[in-house]
Amino acid sequence: MASRFLLLYASQTGQAEAIAKEEIFEQAESHGLSPAIHCLSQTDKKFDVDKEKVVVFVASTTGDGDPPDTAQKFWRRLKKKTLSRDHLKHLKYSVLGLGDSNYTNFCNFSKNLNRRLLELGATPFYPVDYADDAIGLERVVEPWIDGLWNAVRKVLGLQPEGGAVQKDSTSAKPPPAKKAPTAKSKASTTIAAPEKGKTPRSSNSKDPQSVIAQLNPAARSKTSKQNGTTVGNKERSSSTSSSSPQQREKQKRGSAATLATNSSPLANRKDEKDERRVVAKAMTTQKEKEEEKDLTEVENVRRLMESLCCSDTGMSRQTLNLPPLPNEPLEIRFLPGNSSVKLSHFREASWYPSSATSVFMAKITSAKVLSRHDAVKKALEFELDLSESDHVQYEPGDAFSIICQNSDREVNWLIERLDLTDVAHKEAKINVKASAATRDLSHLPETWTPYGWLKYCCDIRGVPKKMFLRKLAESTSNAKEKRRILELCSRQGANDYSSLIRESSVNVLDILEAFPSCMPSLQTLLNGLLRLQPRSYSVSSSRLVNESSVRFVFNVVKLPQKMNFPSRRGVCTGWLNSITESFQIPFGESSDVKPDVDVKIPIFFRVNNRFKLPEAVKTPIIMVGPGTGVAPFIGFLEHRKQQRLAAKMTGMRLRFGEMLLFFGCRHKERDFLYRKDLEGFLSDRILSQLCVCFSRDEGQKEGAPKYVQHYMKQKGKEIADLIVNGDASIFVCGDARNMAKEVMATFSDILQEHSGKSADEASTLLKSMRDEKRYCEDVWT
Predict the structure, then answer these.
(1) Helix/strand/coil percent split, the chain, to 5
(2) Same domain for 400 and 542?
(3) Does residue 248 register a pLDDT over 90?
(4) The pLDDT of residue 505
(5) Whether residue 344 is found in the same domain as residue 459
(6) pLDDT one-digit tens code per residue, 408-464
(7) pLDDT grade, residue 597 (50/70/90)?
(8) Domain that holds residue 737
């Protein structure tokens, strides 16, 4: 077939698959093209790239710049050293890479794939490009797909659409997003502006950036400086001077309290009464801060709701360029009686690309609070019993995943909102249409209940893609609401989508709250929602201490309020916190008594993530792990302690390398995680140096380091010597968005200052260390 080409995707969480299937495959027919689409995992079963002429790859990157698990087999074959330089000289290709620039190896697999294809003689027929999830995949994906169609038609020898002469695309970037549609088609649907008198309400709409400034502290600071306001001192510009009755009352109370304090004749006395007054005032101040935070949160919700629901005056008059209306590959048929499907059946049948073991149930044998009640974040340490799995052989640095579930409150709200209460627990069967796109729906059991699918299978907190919004608009009866949803998924509404939905993490629950007449069917929801992904955690223990258990630590994530929903907890961390509240060991207390409860969670261990202790115990180790990033290093230290004990008992004379740990938290007395353990490792000389800094403690000595990178610079000479002369290994665990990048830059600065290397030489050395697995990261956003 002259219009055929091969469309391949490599996906870890479903992003690449959704783009390949819903935004390329489904649009192709309207452009006169007939792609065959497959996952890279199907190599040799469904396709052979050696026999193809034109291939389009859509590929994501996972881990430390690794291929997705589904691409491992394909990648191993493509990397064979026996392949000649002209092995793929017949192949014309292009690659759309998906990644996140918060991680060091941005789009690393896509870049390596492109490089290897070139090495094997393949020729790009359309520019390779890389989409960044940190700023919005759609900014690259949409214009790249716009330019793809004529490029494919040209390489297949077909006439360009519209008969225009197609320029050579091998040296040009994909065309920019079209500002206006050129033709009506499934791939480029247009909708005219409302008739006069039917324009959506817009007089009170807010600038989307101002809403983001309220929701994002960093953006708020930047916006405040630009507007000449000082948020920290609570100064307001004239445009924000109005306040609610609650705010005015709070301000009156604050003014009265200030006046009373300043006019008191006892203000300067250092006696017991004064101390009590200071404590009382501090408590009042803290309460007022909390009240102010609550009021600010309510105001944020109001502004976000208003901006989300209201059109910009200019946009409300435009003809919209819309994504195609997606197909619905599945249908639902209700069966008589209630469901006989058990949750255990779903778990046993679940398969995850990253799993190294089968899913099994692990009993929670301990839940210990590691942070004080007034810490900013609540940290919990769990211990799990692994005795029900006979094949777990984990090492320090390994990670495992928890198969979590959505909250009952949100699932029940969704069921009630969509009028599914009467059928929520009725057995239903999914039928996948034979003619539909080959989207992977294996995460949905063929027979279950609406409640089961929504609670355990679907990510109801996920940010909806534009294609899903397009479908939701078709389920909206109010004309103004439908128009606004169409604007948000249109090319003209790209900025609103980015700021009001993607950056604000607005999900389908928020959309349904904001647009009351939007009433999608159950099958529309199941078609549009992605799989609820398992959550991964690094182990904070060594199997040498206890073979049948594993420990891990996490912060209970608290998310800002959106719409009229109260503040939410993280999907997994909130669930883990709620199921253990009755037997959590309070901060500062210890207990060897196991709780008399039988709470189990489904887990599986992940494929080796290369975050491993060096085999040679003489290798010096530099560990950087602020906050919960310290978790894997507790496992490292436990393991090294057991190795030392074993060597001593057997009379072996081994030289153990130095172990330096850089740890940081906000307050020494509130959230210094594993303090006693770390001080014990230090006194036992397992840990050579413990470098701890506190970013929020008052009264610290002038010049005391606030963050781990500051402490690293103080130890710069020693660090440089360990790296250059001691062949040290570096391990970094924690936040990818800021910390990991700054730590990498700090290592570069240290090498330049203390080893005489240029910036390029330092960068080259760190890159080679990464390639040799001597610079390892376990980071997340």
Answers:
(1) 40, 20, 40
(2) yes
(3) no
(4) 87
(5) yes
(6) 999 999 999 999 999 999 999 998 876 555 567 778 888 899 999 999 999 999 999
(7) confident
(8) 621-780
Nearest partner of 732 among 765, 775, 771, 781, judged by Cα: 775
Nearest C-alpha neighbor of 777 from the set 727, 743, 733: 733
Boundary of a domain, candidates 609, 641, 669: 609
Q: How many residues does the chain have?
A: 781
Q: Closest by alpha carbon to 670, among 375, 368, 370?
A: 375
The tokens describing 701, both together, are 């000595």
Q: Which pLDDT value is given to residue 402? A: 95
| Burial track 535-553 (b if 16+ CB lie within 10 A, e otherwise) | bbbbbbbbbbeeeebbbbb
Could you tell me the pTM of the whole model? Answer: 0.78
Region class of 88: left (phi > 0), else alpha (psi between -120 and 50), else beta: alpha
What average pLDDT does this structure show over 313-340?
81
- Name the band, by pLDDT with cuts 50, 70 and 90, for residue 302: confident
pLDDT tens across 631-656, in order? 999 999 999 999 999 999 998 889 99
**Is the same domain home to 544 and 591?**
yes
- Whole-angstrom Cα distance, residue 55 to residue 125? 10
DSSP state, residue 242: -
Lowest mean pLDDT among 182-196, 316-330, 433-447, 648-662: 182-196
Which CATH number is 427's domain given? 2.40.30.10
Token look-up 């001077």 returns 241
Q: What CATH number did the domain enclosing 71 receive?
A: 3.40.50.360
Q: Which residues contact 59 (CB under 8 A, 6 or more apart)?
A: 9, 10, 16, 40, 67, 68, 71, 95, 96, 97, 98, 109, 110, 113
Instruction: Taking the CA atoms of 389, 392, 397 and 400 in sequence, report the sign of the dihedral they define.
Output: negative
Q: Which residues of 146-174 are buried (b: 16+ CB within 10 A; e: fewer)?
A: bbbbbbbbbbbebeebeeeeeeebeeeeb
The mean pLDDT of 104-108, rounded to a whole number, is 89
Domain boundary among 589, 609, 629: 609
E-strand spans in 688-768? 689-694, 729-735
Residue type, 487: E
Buried b (16+ CB within 10 A) or exposed e, 242-278: eeeeeeeebeeebeeeeeeeeeeeeeeeeeeeeeebe
CA distance between the termini of the chain: 45
Residue 96 lies in a domain: yes
751 and 603 housed in the same domain: no
Q: Kindly tell me if the per-residue pLDDT of 125 is higher than 90.
A: yes
- With contact defined as beta carbons under 8 Å apart, do 189 and 324 qualify? yes
Rounded to 5 degrees, φ, ψ at 744 are -60, -45
